[in-house]
Amino acid sequence: MYCEGKTKGKVIFTENGVTKQIIVPTAPFSISFQPAGNCGISGTRSVIYTAENLSGTRSTSINSFKNETLFFKAVAQEGAFNGFRHDLYGNCAGTERLIEASFSVFSGAISIVSNTFSPNADSTGLIVTDENGNFLFTIPLKETDYQVSCDDDCPPGHHKCKHDKYPGYCCVNCKDRGNKINTLISKIKKYG
Fold first, then answer.
1. Exposure class string for 61-94: b at 16+ Cβ within 10 A, else e
2. 124 or 178, higher pLDDT
3. Long-range contacts: 137-141, Cβ < 8 Å, 24+?
4. Which of 17, 124, 164, 170 is the most buried (most CB within 10 A)?
């Protein structure tokens, strides 16, 4: 558990080379990690679609992945509308998977109007939960490199310095700063 006896927390992480943070409005909280595959985090995709032989739109929800692309394959089938059923597939990183066979048998060709992805609470990446195990955030990361600070403190291994810009302080990484000082000392010793 992080931030026990505190009122809130902050999770600092790097995504695609950019440092980001989320504020966790409740404390204490837990963080777990489940590595993401090439398809990204798992979740539910809400799909709105039209069909050739139906009026209006229809909707469905399927288990999917964040980076998955949906498409339909027409398969010849006797008795189906226009002689074809349509199977729903997903493609991720060049790998196809059958999501639902015979998605449309009597409705004809399907066109996706929109689809919205929502990550599962047990999805991959950093999973932040409150002290009762309730899902708060999923951060889709491939690494476990993150830091936590509580209330307005700096994460462990950092020094708090006053700063004239919001929020009034900055956190300096002690290890990085120490390495820079050691490099300078080595140069001074070497060159006098």
1. ebebbbbbebebebeeeeebbeebbbbbbbebee
2. 178
3. 137/11, 137/22, 137/24, 138/41, 139/11, 139/13, 139/15, 139/22, 140/36, 140/40, 140/41, 140/66, 141/13, 141/15, 141/33, 141/36
4. 124
23 DSSP assignment: E
Sorted by where each begins, the domain ranges of the chain are: 1-36+124-152, 42-116, 154-192
Token pair of 15 as six digits: 């995504």
Residues 125 and 109: their CA atoms lie apart, in Å, by 36
Please, are residues 4 and 30 in contact by the beta-carbon 8 Å criterion?
Answer: no
Lookup: tokens for 151: 């209330």
Asked whether the whole model's pTM tops 0.85, one would answer no
pLDDT in tens, 127-149: 788 888 777 777 766 666 788 88
> Would the CA dihedral through 50, 52, 55, 59 be positive or negative?
negative
**In the chain, count of helices (H) and strands (E)?**
1, 14
Token pair, residue 63, equals 């288990």
